[in-house]
Amino acid sequence: MSHLFGHDQPLSVQARGGHSPSFVGTFDPRVRVVAACVFAIVVVALHQIEFALGALIFAAITMSLTDLPLRVTLKRMAAMDGFIIVMLVMLPFTTPGTPMFSVLGAEASKEGLMHAILVGIRANAVVLMMLSLLSGMTPVTLGHTLYRLKCPPVLVHLMMFTVRYISVLHDEYHRLRMAMKLRGFKARNNAHTYRSFGYLFGMLVVRSLERAERVLEAMKCRGFSGHFPMIDDLAFKRRDGAFAVFFLALIIALVLMDRMYVVAY
Amino acid sequence: MHIVDGALAPEVLIGGGVLAVAGLSLGLRKLPIDKIPATGVLSATFFVASLIHVPVGPSSVHLIMSGLAGLVLGWTAFPALFVGLLLQAVFFGFGGLTVLGVNTVNIAFPAVLAGLLFRGMVSRSSPVTAAVLGGCAGAFSIALTTVFVAISLALSGDAFVPAAKLVFFAHIPIMVVEGLVSAASVYLIAKVKPALLQAADQTSGFEMQATATLRAKQAGEASNG
């Protein structure tokens, strides 16, 4: 998973030298971040399965315009669905309403089933759209984008540091783990395993803090005054505006249809 | 532990968002420029914790270690854990955007609370007692997180109440494992680098922390660079 935060990832905003970005990737990251947030908020508020399905199709079309590997994206969505599957299966049995069928004496209601389907579609639509619009950018680009969108600079700096050190510490973890393996450690269900993992993580915390002290000293040597220069060439072009208008129009249409449907029936 | 988009009622989402912003601004206020590198590196460490899988019965779970985060970071655990959740949501699709606030409150607030409750005691006790207290802090923060998750589900509709109960009981083994692993971690930190667990007022400034480290070094602590 940490390949996203690998050492080879560009530390500048211009990602992937030479390799041209996908259609979605050519738009200003700021527009993409705002669009993903608006989409999430609106889709969560949809009440009708038909329009939630429409949002899911919209997300799938956006997905097809990116160069994300389909298999990886589907796998991530499946992992997300794994989180909610228990809740979705339980919902029909716990919602009162018209009984539809029964399993082991428990009545499943139509309303509950519809609610479960709605929740599942909404969750998938939001995650798919978020992955399509955002996961194509590097974490550094995300940091710069949030900075330009007036997020607190301290928070953005904190995020950039975190992104920078995840891969370093993940490597460190693998090194310690390798050393344990060489000494014949095998993870089992016993106190020894949990103690060993505890020592492993404690060591990781200690080493990371010592690393942080060295980093701060090195940064002070180079004149760190609490602010990172954010050098990037984010520019809001006309086609970004067009994308924003198109996206917004589609979303507003979805909401209006959803609300009108409620009134009409 | 993550709640996904689309399940919770709008009121719960908004409430979670407001609380998360409040916690974040409080945490950021306690984060001087000098401590950004240390907090960032520790935030990365706790992100890596979620990539470490520990066997539990026939399956395995990943570590969360929010109790330890609270012990080591105090209030700044809030922004540190938020950053981890944001990265997980955006790049891995775990959790979602609208539930980010709720998820942050559910995970970071118990961590901060565990830190406030146990930090003073841990810093004053011997490594073995510190380990026991650290284990309590680890199990406590996970327990409180599952309670918060259950509450956010239950507030979103009565139909979720059985699912909320299930969430709580399914996490009992995780509480035990987190407690054991946190206890061992705290034991090691208390032995190797006790300065990390000093009470908040003693490490408020980075300079102060450096002196604490120096004192620990003079006491004959092993070098772990």
Notes on the structure:
The complex is a heterodimer of chains A (265) and B (225). By secondary structure, chain A is mainly α. Chain A folds into two domains: 29-137 and 235-264, no CATH class; 152-221. Chain A contains eight helices and two strands; from the N terminus they run αααββααααα. Chain A has helices spanning 29-44, 49-64, 70-94, 110-134, 139-148, 153-182, 191-221, 238-264; strands at residues 99-103, 106-109. In chain A, a hairpin with a 2-residue loop joins strand 1 and strand 2. Chain A starts with 28 loop residues before the first helix and ends with a helix. Chain B is mostly helical and 225 residues long. Chain B has a single domain, classed as Arp2/3 complex 21 kDa subunit ARPC3 (Orthogonal Bundle), CATH 1.10.1760.20. Helix content of chain B is 69%, strand content 4%. In chain B, strands 1-2 form a two-stranded antiparallel ribbon. In chain B, a hairpin with a 2-residue loop joins strand 1 and strand 2. The longest helix of chain B has 29 residues, at 127-155. Chain B: It is a multi-pass membrane protein.
Assembly type of the chains comes to heterodimer
Report the order of strands and helices of chain B. Answer: HHEEHHHHHHH
CATH architecture field of chain B: Orthogonal Bundle
What is the count of β-strands of chain A? Answer: 2
Largest sheet report of chain A? 2 strands, antiparallel
Shape, principal axes of CA atoms of chain B: globular
Largest interface: A-B, 88 and 79 residues
Number of strands of chain B: 2
Main traits of this protein?
heterodimer, A: 265 residues, mainly alpha, B: 225 residues, Arp2/3 complex 21 kDa subunit ARPC3, two-stranded antiparallel ribbon, 2 strands, globular, membrane (chain B), transport (chain B)
